[in-house]
Design a protein that fits this description.
- By secondary structure, the protein is of the alpha/beta class.
- It has 2 domains: about 1-145 and about 310-325, Rossmann fold; about 150-305, Dihydrodipicolinate Reductase, domain 2.
- The chain has 11 helices and 14 strands.
- It has a 7-stranded parallel beta sheet. It has a 7-stranded mixed beta sheet with strand order 9-10-8-11-14-13-12.
- Helix 1 crosses helix 11 and helix 7 runs parallel beside helix 9 (about 210-220).
- The radius of gyration is 20 Å and the shape is globular.
């Protein structure tokens, strides 16, 4: 039985972790820490969790770190895990970072895409990028949990890159996210009252997830044109991505579908659909639904996930399960 610490336990992803871990048969104890809500009771801060999880005290980070844990989940804003992780790795503890501080490959990229100076190239080199379906082995004590947009897009494009990288001319993705993807920050433009009945693009050609996606595509051999345009939807949860892949030559639709089904035949959380996925099919689940359409030399892949589960906390638990050799569905189905 494992003991768990969650730092940043009262944000959206922290709450999802609490809900999943409470029902996980291999978890003995959960402790949480936060900054602004430290020393309060969990029910005082999150009354919606009454009778769902235990009413534990929210600790300070310093208090939580006085004890040892089998796993520490970091559900922190960007740049806050950067200096915490090196200290935590001195322990015999699995660290799963749900933020972006260790997802990229090079320190220099953090200044451009995240706006802070990254000082730990050694940890960027010695981490597991936790796209769970494509992790071959967990060789390190640090798992960088992928972003929500990258999860939805990479699960859609990695198979086609593996199948016919030399035949691909370009990959372009348009994605749509629920408002919870921005966290609990109080910004007027993210209020549901402002977004209701509205859709808008943002961070066009400069979203920080673009470099994360492209670096992972590079690792599978793709180094050609890629663009990513995110949009906001007037819903709370979910990511919906439409990826257009232009090829040099024509392909057969059923051949592509069959290849995807073969790639994912043993991956319970990826469902290759025979029709176009809908966002409501995956909300509040850890599934990624994929649909494929082909016309001549153009492939269109639609993929849908819940941004707080498959795009964050659910995938983090899936990585933990795989790391310890548990059935990867524990707590998630």
């Amino acid at each position: 039985m494992k003991e768990i610490g969650i730092i940043g336990g009262t944000g959206y992803t922290g709450v999802e972790l609490l809900k999943i871990l409470k029902n996980h048969p291999e978890i003995a104890k959960i402790s949480i820490a936060a900054n602004s809500t430290a020393n309060k009771g969990l029910y005082e801060v999150l009354p919606e969790l009454v009778s769902i999880v235990d009413d534990i005290k929210i600790q300070t980070v310093e208090e939580l770190l006085e004890n040892n844990y089998d796993v520490i989940f970091l559900a922190l804003p960007h740049a806050e895990a950067h200096n915490l992780v090196p200290m935590l790795l001195n322990r015999d503890t699995l660290i799963i970072d749900l933020g972006g501080d260790f997802r990229l490959s090079y320190c220099d990229d953090y200044k451009k895409w995240y706006g802070f100076e990254h000082l730990h190239q050694n940890l960027l080199d010695c981490k597991t990028y936790g796209l769970a379906e494509f992790v071959i082995s967990y060789n390190f004590k640090l798992i960088a949990n992928p972003g929500c947009y990258p999860t939805s897009i990479l699960l859609a494009v990695i198979p086609i890159i593996k199948l016919m990288n030399n035949n691909i001319e370009s990959i372009n993705t348009v994605s749509y996210s629920g408002l919870s993807g921005a966290g609990k920050s109080l910004r007027p433009d993210l209020l549901l009252s402002e977004m209701y009945g509205n859709v808008k693009a943002y961070n066009i050609l400069k979203h920080r997830h673009e470099i994360e996606i492209y670096q992972q595509m590079n690792k599978y051999g793709y180094n050609k044109q890629f663009s990513f345009i995110p949009h906001l939807l007037p819903v709370m949860r979910g990511i919906y991505s439409t990826t257009i892949i232009t090829l040099k030559n024509k392909v057969n639709k059923q051949d592509i579908i069959n290849f995807y089904k073969e790639i994912y035949k043993d991956e319970i959380f990826v469902r290759v659909r025979n029709n176009v996925p809908e966002l409501k099919w995956v909300v509040n689940t850890n599934f990624c639904d994929i649909g494929i359409e082909v016309r001549d030399n153009v492939i269109v892949i639609n993929s849908a996930i819940d941004n707080l589960l498959k795009g964050a906390s659910g995938q983090a638990i899936q990585n933990m399960n795989k790391y310890f050799g548990f059935n990867q569905t524990l707590g998630l189905l």
